Each structure stands twice: as C-alpha cells, then as structure tokens.
Amino acid sequence: MYRRTALLAAGAFALAAAGSAAAEITIATVNNGDMIRMQGYTDRFTDETGIEVEWVTLEENVLRQRVTTDITTRGGQFDIMTIGMYEAPIWGANGWLVPLDDLSDEYDVDDILPAMAGGLSHDGTLYAAPFYGESSMIMYRKDLMEAAGLEMPEAPSWSFVRHAAEAMTDRGRDINGICLRGKAGWGEGGAFITAMSNSFGARWFDLDWNAQFDTRPWADTLNFFVGMMNDSGPAGYATNGFNENLSLFQQGKCGMWIDATVAASFVTNPAESTVADKVGFALAPDNGLGKRSNWLWAWALAIPAGTKQEGDAKKFIEWATSKEYIKLVAENEGWANVPPGARTSLYRNPNYRRVPFARMTLDSILTADPNDSTLEPSPYVGIQFAAIPEFAGIATEVSQEFAEVYAGRQTVEEALEKAQDITNDAMEAAGYR
C-alpha cells in the first residue's frame, strides 16, 4: 500500500512539474532601436506572466527573408513575427496569420491610429498590432543650416533640399550635406526611392499593370537622386540603409537625413547622438505636384497560423503594444523615447505633445495616403510599395539594379531598362498582363 501511494505521489509530482514548466515563445524581430529597447523590458513581462521569451533579432532584409520563408512553408520557427503594412493584409487574406479580433477590452484596440489599424487589417480584421508607426520626414542640423545662411521651410521642395545639401557639405570636416538610403532591398533603398518617385510624378504601374520605368518621371527621380548624392552624400551610400545613416547622423556627419520619423528619438537622445541639441524637423520634400515623398509604415507584431503558443503570443502582443508599455518606457527613459505613431491617446497626452518631434511625426503620418499616393492613377494601394504579393520579389531585384547605379557600376538608363524588363516579365508570369 505504501509503495503504491508513493508511486502515485511521485507521478503526481512529475505531472505537476511538467505542468508548471515555464512556457516559452520565440519572436523574430528587426534590429531597430525601439525593438532592442523592448527586449530590455522583456523580463518584466516574464515576471508578470511566467512566459519566457526567446528573441531572434535580424537585420531588416534578413528578417523579411526569414519570416517570409517561414510563413509560406509553415516552418513553425516563430510564435510572433515582426512584419509591416505590406505583409499583414496579404498574409491575413491567405490565412497565414491569426486574427487579432479578440484582444481584451483593457487593450483598447479602438485607440490604435486609424491609419495604422487600416494598414494592418484585411476586410476589417486586424492581423498585426503596431509596436510603432511611422512616416518619413527631414531631420536636419539647425546649426549647419544657419551657417549656410539658409532657413528650412516646414514643407520644403526637393530643389531647396538639394541646394541646402550642397551648401552644408564640407568634405574637409567629413560632413555630408545629405544622407539617404541606397541599400538594396525593397524595404530599404527601394522604399525610399519609390516614395521619392511619387513626388516626381512616377508610379510603378499604369492601370493595366504595365511597368512605368521607361517614363520621364522615373528618369527624373533617379537622375536627381544620383546627382544629389554624388555631390553631397557620403561615400559608399549604395550600401547605407536605415541603421547606417542613423549612425552617420548621430556622429555629426550628415547635414540632413530623410527617413523614418521613428528615428527622431535616437538623433535627439544625448546619450546616443553627438548632435542631439541641434536637430530640427520638416516634412518630406515635394516638387510642387501635389504629392510629397513621405511614406506610411508600421513595425507590427503578428502570430503565424499554426503556432502552438497562440494564447501566450497574444499575451505578449497585448503587453508590448499597450498603453501600459508606453508608460513603462516613459517612466524609465522619458516621453521622447516611447514607441511613436501607433496610438491616438499618445498624441493627446500633454507630456508627449511637448516632445519636439511629436507634431511633425503626426502631421507626416496623417498626410500619407496609401490609397492616393501617385500623381497619375495607379491600380495598387501603397506608398513605398505596391500591395500585391509579387511586389517584394520584383522590387528587391529592381532595387539591386538601382544600387548598381549608386555604386557607379551602371548608368541610370541601363538600370531603368532592366527594371522595366524585370517588372513586366514578372507581372506577365504572374498573370497580370
């Protein structure tokens, strides 16, 4: 009798131990500053929930490649993926993501900025929760602008930006008038040049899905970009993406940088930036055609369908994208360092409204319209991308051809001719034409 009781007790203990084993979720994310900051607070989440978190942190192009491969093959490597406005509606429509239609009342899903919720939804269902949202804007050195005898308009033109870049460039002091993305990748240099092209009157496709790289607006865009960067940009700009330009700006080596609004907290942080007290902000440039060159994006957290940790994954998403997480960061690091651009309540908070870049960030987000991004009508939704499944592959190839121009290995004309053929061939193979 004693032996049987002891065995039962031992079995019960083993089951209890197994049941109390810490749950674990694996999250794939991008190596941007706000995501790195989030990882530093993950112990708080584990202490509250008992859920352990394993991070897989990747460079932007690599992240996109890894999560796309995993989701399309149902590889099951990740319980949460960091994705954006391009992937969320397409993958949601394919049934590849868990709908986020049952988040708690306390989470307050209605507080998500409509531009962000709309871009991360399909048929009204949210498939990814924004960790932060962004547009793009100009960050510039006020001291260098003043020394050049210029004053930055709140809504400048590309011609002013090019003139200012020339005036601020000082090769002897290793100061480049302007730093912009040239790095290959549809979401790196490809995103920048596409958003820029909108302001020059370009578009990827006409209404019959014919490529438009053989048009004057695309030639004007690429020639202007290459001329400005060769005159006033850093050496090797063909390999510079978001993080590389951020580092250059923080080191005081850029007069202007046009990029994601989320960078504002990093260039104004005195612990990270040598020019923190010298930075001003302006809207992304235009050409007087009625279209600015600012984009719309969110880095968001989504759950791949088929995960065995759906409940725990939702708990993490609610925690990381909540109002409470914003307060946590504010209490520890100040309001300037909270994840921006995702929640309406943040922009109603008087503490945040005093942050010097808060208004310009919101203005940039609100003036970015993915449903009307091009001067001439286009058949796609999106500003720095076309929201069709084929775009990522096509745009990656096209951006590689453009990077060859930036590196001086081919001409603008050669790159545009190749881009035209790459795009039309792919669209024909996919049945669009």
Question: How would you characterize the overall build of this protein?
Answer:
- The chain folds into 2 domains: 170 residues, 3-Layer(aba) Sandwich (D-Maltodextrin-Binding Protein, domain 2); 219 residues, Periplasmic binding protein-like II (D-Maltodextrin-Binding Protein, domain 2, 3-Layer(aba) Sandwich).
- It has a 5-stranded mixed beta sheet with strand order 2-1-3-11-6. A 4-stranded mixed beta sheet has the order 8-9-7-10, with helices on both faces.
- The longest helix has 19 residues.
- With 433 residues, it is of the alpha/beta class.
- Helix 17 runs antiparallel to helix 18.
- Strand 4 and strand 5 form a beta hairpin.
- The N terminus is likely disordered.
- Helices cover 44% and strands 13% of the residues.
Give a quick set of tags describing it.
13% strand; 18 helices; D-Maltodextrin-Binding Protein, domain 2; 433 residues; alpha/beta; single chain; globular
Indicate the topology.
Layout: H1 2-20, E1 24-30, H2 33-40, H3 42-49, E2 52-58, H4 60-73, E3 80-83, H5 87-93, H6 114-119, E4 121-122, E5 125-126, E6 129-134, E7 136-141, H7 142-147, H8 158-168, E8 176-179, H9 189-199, H10 216-232, H11 242-250, E9 254-260, H12 264-267, E10 279-283, E11 297-302, H13 310-320, H14 323-333, H15 350-353, H16 358-366, H17 391-406, H18 412-429
Parallel strand pairs: 1-2, 1-3, 8-9
Antiparallel strand pairs: 3-11, 4-5, 6-11, 7-9, 7-10
Helix pairs in contact: 17-18
